[in-house]
Amino acid sequence: MTTSTNDKDALRDLLDNNKRWAAETEAREPGFFSRLLKQQTPQYLWIGCADSRVPANELVDLLPGELFVHRNVANVVVHSDLNALSVMQFAVDHLKVRHIIVVGHSNCGGVRAALYDQRVGLVENWIRHVQDVRRMHQDWLDTVAEPRRVDALCELNVLEQARNACHTTVVQDAWEREQEVVVHGWVYGLHNGLLEDLSITVGCPADVEPAYRRALANVKARYATAG
Length: 227
Prior knowledge:
Layout: H1 5-28, H2 32-38, E1 44-49, H3 56-59, E2 67-72, H4 82-94, E3 99-105, H5 109-116, H6 123-136, H7 138-141, H8 149-167, H9 169-176, E4 182-188, E5 195-202, H10 208-226
Parallel strand pairs: 1-2, 1-3, 3-4
Antiparallel strand pairs: 4-5
Helix pairs in contact: 5-6, 8-10
C-alpha cells in the first residue's frame, strides 16, 4: 500500500504546526525548552478518557511538564491494568505528585457502548469494566430520564474508578508511608467546556467509603432534581 500525496500533506501540516508552536513558545518564554529538559515536576496525575475532544493540559491551562497524563477508553482504573498502575507508580513514587484526578466526560462513547451493550469490537472487552458499573447501579439508572442516562453513567463511572484508584497498592502504600496523595473525581462537559468536581476527594484510607457515599448521593440527588 502506497502513501497518498494527501496523507503526506496532512502529516506535513502537523510537522509545520509543531515548528510554529515551538517557535512561538520559545519566543514567549525564552529558555522554556531548556528548562523543561532539566526537570519534570508535576503536582497532578490526570487519568482521563482517550477521547480527542478532551485535551488534558489545555482544559486546565497548564504547560508541558505541569500535568502527568494517562488516558484510556472511558477513563478506567482496574487492578489488572499494568499500564495504568505503572503510570500511577511512577507519578506517585518518583514524581511525587500530590493529586490524582480521574476525569470522565459527558456523552462518552465508551460509556454509551457499555450502557446499551453496543458491539464495538475488541474494545468491548475493555468496557466490560464500565458495564460492571452499570450493573452495580442498574436499578437507579433505570429511573433516570433516558436522554440523560449516558451522562449519569459517565459520572457513576468516575466515582467507581476514583474509588478503584484509592484501593490500588500504589496509593495504599503511599498513604501507609504518610505521603500526601489526594484522589479526586471530575467530569468534563463537552457541551460547555467546563470541568465539574464530583466531590469525591480522598486523602487517606478511612475517607474512601464515606467520600464515595457522599459523592454518590450528590450525583443521584442532582439527577433526581433535574428530572
